[in-house]
Specification:
globular, seven-stranded mixed beta sheet, 244 residues, 20% helix
Length: 244
């Protein structure tokens, strides 16, 4: 069985190495599709804080000889994510590993096990735990679930949830510089709440913190290692009360 990972990338040096590390032992190839400009719907004249040189060095250290790095430009997020199919037509399982998402071993096991169920589906949906401004507070009750596993040899386009374990999403536990930039390239920029960065993210609000939806996402105290792999304690942000 050929299992590979796919990372679509424009920025993400805070957690890219850790995201790849979380799956690297389970894949034969780690594909990274890097774009020097945003592909998720919007572009900006702001300079991206993360460079290709920095990101490549991080990915290479984490993935070693398994790394497959592709640099290109894609007109939209769908095209960016679908590029993987041109390069791995023989893959049985694709783990969709965003640069700010950390997997756990049992989640990977669930993803591989679900490949052989009696009623196969093509796309596996996995909900997230969204860490908020630190490793110690998170939104744990969001059941929205992005596609994070693909079984490309299944010919239907059905979807289903994968297991009970959630992916650890660190997108709002990054440095302020990258979150500020992120809001200008995000696929939901048109829905982004005005002054969200100034009224919710920067002051570390603790209620109603979702960037596009009102009355949604209320962080709670968590023990980071109840969710994250133990080696995430090596991350320099692990000891911070608030990531600035």
């Amino acid at each position: 069985m050929k299992v590979v990972s796919q990372t679509v990338l424009h920025y993400g040096k805070d957690f890219l190495g850790y995201a790849l590390r979380s799956v690297i032992d389970s894949v034969s190839e780690a594909w990274v599709f890097y774009s020097p400009v945003g592909s998720h719907g919007f572009r900006t004249d702001l300079r991206c804080p993360d460079t290709e040189t920095e990101l490549y060095a991080i990915a290479r250290q984490a993935a070693g000889d398994k790394l497959r790095w592709i640099t290109g430009e894609w007109t939209n997020e769908g095209a960016h994510r679908e590029a993987i199919f041109e390069y791995v037509p023989d893959a049985d399982v694709i783990l969709v590993v965003d640069a700010d998402e950390i997997w756990t071993n049992n989640l990977i096991e669930d993803a591989l096990r679900m490949k052989d169920i009696s009623e196969p589906f093509r796309r596996g949906l996995i909900p997230c735990v969204h860490f908020w401004r630190s490793f110690w507070r998170a939104i744990t009750d969001d059941m929205a679930a992005p596609t994070r596993v693909i079984y490309p040899k299944v010919k239907n386009d059905d979807t289903s949830y994968i297991g009970l374990t959630k992916i650890n999403h660190m997108g709002y536990a990054q440095r302020s510089e990258i979150v500020y930039y992120k809001q200008y390239t995000h696929g939901h920029k048109n829905e982004w709440r005005q002054i969200w960065f100034e009224t919710k993210f920067r002051p570390n609000a603790q209620v109603d913190v979702h960037p596009t939806n009102h009355d949604y996402w209320n962080p709670v105290a968590v023990n980071a290692l109840d969710y994250l792999p133990s080696w995430m304690a090596e991350h320099p942000y692990f000891v911070l009360d608030v990531i600035e």
